[in-house]
Structure formats: C-alpha cells, structure tokens
C-alpha cells in the first residue's frame, strides 16, 4: 500500500477503537467518504484527548497550538502533499489527502482547538448561551467538518446546511455533557450553566439533593431535544449514504438522550449508554431510510 493508504488504514483503526457511537454511522458511507471521515475523526480525537489529558494546562495549550500549526500546514498544502505534510504522522497525511479531495472546512479545527483549550483551562459557564458557544466550538465544528465530506444535494442552501450541521453538533455535545455529569465532576469539570444550577437548587459542582439534580438534568435534556429537532432538518439535504450516516449517529444519541430524560437520576449512578444491538438497529434503520 502507498503511504496515504497506510495512513487511512491507521485512521480507520482509531475510529473503530475510539468512536463508540460515531463508527456506526461512518461505516455506512461509501469508501472514499468513509476514509475521509476517519481522518477527520482521528484528528478531532487527538485534539480532544489533549484537552482531556493529565498534563499541566500550559503543556496542553502548547500541544494544541502544535496541532493548529500542523493544520495550517495542511491548509497551505491543499491540493497536494508538501514534503512537510508527507513526512508527518499518519493522521496528518490522511487528513491532507482528504482535504485535497473534499471541501473540508479546515478552519473548523481552529474552533475545536479553541474549545479544547477552554477545557484545558478549566473554564466554566455562567449562562446557557455561553455553554452553547462552547458546544459550537467542540462539536458544531465537527458537524461542519463532516458536512464538508458529505457534500450537499443540488439546490440546497450551503449556509443553511452549515448552520444545521452546527446545531446538530450542539445537540450531540449537550447529550454528552448530561451523560458524563459525574465523570466530569470527578475531573473537576462543570459544564452545566451556573444560573441553571442555582435555579434548581444544585451545588456549583452539580451535587445536591438527588431530586434537584434529576430535575435539572431533565430540563437540560428537553433543551437538547430542541437542538436535535433543528439539526435533523439537515438530513433531506444529503445524499442517501450521507443521510444514513448522520441519521445513525444522531439516532443513537437521540435514543440516549431519551433514556436520560426518562431516568434523569440515572446519570448519577452510571454512565448511561445503549447496548450494541440497539446501536446496530439504529444504523440499519437509518440505512433503510427510517427517521432517526
């Protein structure tokens, strides 16, 4: 295999191992888009891992800036691999090739880096609007990157599609935040807005009476549902296989959100998830054209 083929293979391995939910959708894409999405995911995963790592904040920020610099190199090389990019690690080689083949908005990686820098610095959010802005950075950015791989059907408005992809990313990230309330608290992180914590009688670290936390989680889940309703308006704008991919990923998270909404106190006891068979069922239904 060529160096580029080897690089894609490595990215696909990362995706299968790390993308517990996204992989069900990505595997529904045709080979060229599947490879490109695996490259996008592999770098997004790397950036996220830096933000979540154990290194001191200044070391994390330096590592994030190095990633930003490498993406800048790929941006400059768009349309052909420079020696600098070709000599980089497999994730960058695959992304450089994907960026030459698809209209991937590489600037969105800058937003992702900025969002993970907020994680590295232990940022908290006073208002819901601030939280949504963070979600757009760390997840809306991935929606926009993915849309660059999927492309749009003829006659659809590109700006509208970008906004919807961004909204869908917000929905997924809000679901993640609700699922990981206790895990994040153990890392000293709080994402839910301080104004909402106070409103529902919860402590600043999302502790407090169990029923108060449950009411807060159910309230935030209802908000997340609204983001799904908006973001899923993207589906008719995509071709069949891309629509199946997005439908599978969004459908898995939407079912997870419904489970959280039905049992909001459950997030205090365990990391809520869907069984493998249910994820596979959602993917199969998406490929068959069922609404997620």
List the helices and strands and how they pair.
Blueprint: H1 3-18, H2 22-26, H3 31-52, H4 57-76, H5 83-86, H6 90-101, H7 107-120, H8 128-150, H9 158-179, H10 181-186, H11 194-199, H12 210-231, H13 240-262, H14 276-287
Can you tell me the number of structural domains?
2
Model regions low in confidence, pLDDT < 50 over at least 5 residues: none
The N- and C-terminal alpha carbons lie at a distance of 37 Å
Average per-residue pLDDT, rounded, comes to: 92
Please, what is the CATH homologous superfamily of the largest domain? Farnesyl Diphosphate Synthase
Strand count: 0
Largest sheet: none
Order of helical and strand elements: HHHHHHHHHHHHHH
Decide which structural class fits the backbone.
Answer: mainly alpha
What global shape is seen?
Answer: globular
**Strand residue content:** under 5%
Computed Rg? 19 Å
Can you tell me the CATH class of the largest domain?
Mainly Alpha
The CATH level-2 architecture of the largest domain is identified as Orthogonal Bundle
CATH-derived topology of the largest domain: Farnesyl Diphosphate Synthase
Percentage of residues assigned to helices: over 70%
How many distinct helices? 14
What would your notes on this structure say?
The protein has 292 residues and is mainly α. It folds into 2 domains: 1-102, no CATH class; 124-292, Orthogonal Bundle (Farnesyl Diphosphate Synthase). 71% of the residues lie in helices and 0% in strands. The chain has helices at 3-18, 22-26, 31-52, 57-76, 83-86, 90-101, 107-120, 128-150, 158-179, 181-186, 194-199, 210-231, 240-262, 276-287. Helix 4 packs across helix 6 (90-101) and helix 7 (107-120) runs antiparallel to helix 8. The mean pLDDT is 92.
């Amino acid at each position: 295999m060529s160096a580029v083929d080897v690089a894609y293979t490595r990215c696909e391995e990362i995706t299968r191992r790390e993308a517990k939910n996204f992989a069900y959708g990505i595997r529904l894409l045709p080979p060229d888009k599947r490879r490109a999405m695996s490259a996008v995911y592999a770098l997004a995963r790397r950036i996220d891992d830096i933000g979540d790592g154990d290194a001191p904040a200044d070391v994390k920020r330096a590592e994030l800036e190095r990633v930003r610099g490498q993406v800048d190199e790929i941006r400059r090389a768009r349309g052909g691999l420079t020696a600098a990019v070709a000599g980089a690690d497999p994730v960058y080689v695959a992304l450089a090739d994907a960026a030459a083949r698809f209209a991937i908005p590489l600037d969105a990686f800058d937003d992702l880096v900025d969002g993970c820098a907020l994680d590295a610095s232990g940022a908290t959010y006073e208002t819901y609007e601030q939280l949504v802005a963070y979600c757009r950075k760390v997840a809306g950015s991935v929606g926009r990157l993915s849309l660059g791989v999927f492309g749009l059907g003829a006659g659809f408005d590109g700006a509208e599609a970008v906004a919807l992809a961004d909204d869908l990313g917000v929905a997924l990230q809000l679901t993640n935040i609700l699922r990981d309330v206790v895990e994040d608290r153990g890392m000293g992180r709080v994402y839910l807005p301080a104004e909402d914590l106070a409103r529902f009688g919860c402590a600043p670290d999302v502790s407090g009476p169990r029923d108060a936390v449950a009411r807060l989680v159910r309230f935030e889940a209802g908000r997340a549902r609204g983001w799904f309703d908006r973001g899923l308006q993207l589906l008719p704008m995509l071709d069949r296989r891309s629509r199946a991919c997005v439908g599978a990923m969004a459908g898995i998270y939407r079912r997870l959100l419904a489970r959280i909404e039905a049992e909001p106190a459950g997030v205090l006891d365990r990391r809520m998830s869907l069984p493998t068979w249910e994820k596979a069922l959602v993917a199969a239904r998406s490929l068959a054209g069922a609404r997620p």
